[in-house]
Amino acid sequence: MSESVSGSVMVENLSRFSINQMTVKQLSLPELVDACLELGVPGVGLWREPVQSYGVEATAKLIREAGLAVTTLCRGGFFTAIDPDERAKALDDNRAAIDEAATLGTDTLVLVSGGLPPGSKDLHGARERIADALAELGPYAAERGVRLAIEPLHPMFASDRCVVSTLAQALDLAERFPAEQVGVTVDTYHIWWDDQAPAQITRAGAGGRIHTFQLADWTTPLPEGVLTGRGQIGDGAIDMREWKGYVEAAGYTGPIEVELFNAGLWARDGREVLAETAARFVEHAA
Amino acid sequence: MSESVSGSVMVENLSRFSINQMTVKQLSLPELVDACLELGVPGVGLWREPVQSYGVEATAKLIREAGLAVTTLCRGGFFTAIDPDERAKALDDNRAAIDEAATLGTDTLVLVSGGLPPGSKDLHGARERIADALAELGPYAAERGVRLAIEPLHPMFASDRCVVSTLAQALDLAERFPAEQVGVTVDTYHIWWDDQAPAQITRAGAGGRIHTFQLADWTTPLPEGVLTGRGQIGDGAIDMREWKGYVEAAGYTGPIEVELFNAGLWARDGREVLAETAARFVEHAA
């Protein structure tokens, strides 16, 4: 199926689709909202920085009046600092992120937990500091109707971005807290290589901890720094329907966000990229 | 401790050190042998391509007369093709690699098992084809006194280089065969992020399947294509003594190879890089 899919088929099959704002970061918030309405995209995942630039209240009003759902806010986290002042600052920033999520009307704040502090080689210690932060933030979030969703990032990010590298590690952390406080983000890009991940999705689902499900495809060669290598759905090695099957078998029936960081997509017209992404979603995951 | 470490201390502490040829690929085989003798490096890990260029018999003679040990030959593998002709060709090539290892006098052939065939998204199927190849090659290798050492590669190589991403997966494959036929390569670079790896090292040691232990450090940012990002010992996030402790607790007392693919090191004088690598080994792992 190509981008020529007919409008009515498209809208029906897009009922669970959400576009993560970073996929089309070249669009302003009003442009994004317009493009979603035009294409029948019902949900968006938002990022703090562009939301803050536009204004949190103004964004909430814009999205609400358009009738769109905010499926997640990205992102809180970066909990691994050792320095007490840095840790206090990170907690303050995460409380602000929780407040923003509540204002935007989303129930899910995605967490990128943080890498190793400069000079440290202690992955275990870093993971424990994440747990300490979750203990502080979980109740604060739950009181505001927001769930924290620990995102295991691909092991290639373990040192500089996120010491939580597998769904099992994310659940080991999340399960220390009630599910209405802390769960996980299941993102195909980060876990597709892991033969233990399907069983961990079952575990997450049984505990009511699949707080969001995101798609990106795995393509090579990876770019320098590897951050902007997330491939368009269907272009890479990941069987999206297989992973959708795992989360559905685990009881997840919520939105499916497509989140791509891809310099090639960012260089193109944002509306065209959104239309292509929606069509790929229909073809590979609806 | 710096590169100014005294000669006698150095030689004593280098008793388990082996330099993988790729670390100093700018050196010819005679230059490599000379540098090893000068510095007191007792072992080398060789690669098929430069050995073939120099001649397998000639290399064997050169190394033998210098009194150096060949700790491994890199590499066999690439077993994941679906096409029968390609598979037959891969098996032939691996039999040649086993013959070369025997000629060189090493008991260990490192295997990089192969990525997904073009267009395939089936990791499980690819892993089963690896098992099929091992069933063919294991007896052939053992008859020649060579052990196959499956190397789990970092998950960032899962699609294009090696669908075996964890030590657990490597052992799941290896344990279908006798340990004198098939074991594993434990390389810090590929497994350092994995909180399950220490337990898997214990499992590998209990089965007599730690066939080689290799060191490289994890540094960021990763270069484009990520292959040449292996960091000099001590420059990155990995605690080498911690991992050495795991393999030793599991009963491994053999050589420790330093294998770095690093464009920065390749641009420098090879003897200087070897001296630096030996000093770093003494400082961080001896």
From TrEMBL, chains A, B:
Q: Which domain of life is it from?
A: Bacteria
Tell me the InterPro entries matching this sequence: IolE/XylAMocC-like, Xyl_isomerase-like_sf, Xyl_isomerase-like_TIM-brl
Membrane spanning stretches: none
Q: Which UniProt keywords apply?
A: Isomerase
Residues annotated as coiled-coil are: none
Q: Any idea where the Xylose isomerase-like TIM barrel domain is?
A: 33-276
Molecular function via GO? isomerase activity
Gene3D superfamilies, sorted:
Divalent-metal-dependent TIM barrel enzymes (3.20.20.150)
* Entry protein name: Xylose isomerase
Organism for this UniProt entry: Streptomyces flaveus
